[in-house]
Write a structure and sequence with these properties.
single chain; about 220 residues; alpha/beta; globular
């Protein structure tokens, strides 16, 4: 069985998110509590560096910036130009404390060295980035930019058990609206977990979502 090429779907992904950009922040308001939980689980400290992989319109940037403070750094990776534009605007309007580096690239092409130099990041957040989590190359690039022991947190949609059809109807509707690759929804964290130690997964929202925590 051939593995889908993540690059082949990049154009479709960019088009999808360019269309959603204007209403994206409103669409994701219901997941704000889960976003806050995911950021808190990173356990960030002032002065640390964190990767925001699949940053979208920058909804995680205020929380990440507060956590690492004025001496910290956030590296925001986002391939969709329209989304990245809104993320940059958010950083300006909110006067975020941390130094923020914007990498307008797909996860498979992100040049972390341009932002980090020879340093490595202390943590990484993957928040509702299903397509990134299905990309071996995208994850390899991100993990190469992390220190040994770096904290990793991911959250997103996942198929619930088959005896929970209402949950799965929700996942199906949300996934068709927001991701390109429908494969992997039964265990979205599989490739991520294989690169981590002490990985733990908890289910949320009647098993329609998950939160994964662990370290490199």
């Amino acid at each position: 069985m051939n593995t889908p090429d993540p690059r082949s779907g990049l154009q479709a992904l960019n088009a999808l998110y360019a269309r959603r950009a204007a209403v994206y922040d409103y669409e994701l308001m219901p997941v704000a509590p889960l976003r806050r939980e995911a950021i808190a689980l990173l356990g960030l400290q002032p002065g640390q560096t964190v990767l925001d992989v699949g940053a979208g319109t920058g909804l995680s940037l205020p929380g990440l910036s507060r956590a690492v403070g004025r001496t910290g750094r956030v590296v925001a990776v986002e391939p969709c130009e329209t989304m990245m534009r809104q993320a940059r605007q958010r950083a300006r309007v909110d006067h975020l404390d941390a130094s923020i580096d914007f990498l307008p690239a797909a996860a498979e092409d992100a040049d972390y060295a341009s932002a980090l130099g020879k340093r490595r990041a202390d943590a990484a957040l993957f928040f509702f980035t299903h397509d990134v989590l299905q990309s071996e190359e995208g994850l390899e690039r991100a993990f190469s930019a992390l220190k040994p022991g770096a904290r990793v947190v991911a959250a997103g949609l996942a198929w619930a058990p088959p005896w929970m059809p209402v949950s799965n109807l929700f996942v199906l509707g949300a996934a068709m609206h927001s991701i390109v690759r429908m494969d992997g929804l039964e265990c979205p964290w599989r490739l991520l977990e294989s690169r981590m130690k002490n990985a733990e997964v908890e289910r949320r929202w009647l098993a329609s979502a998950y939160v994964l925590t662990g370290s490199v």
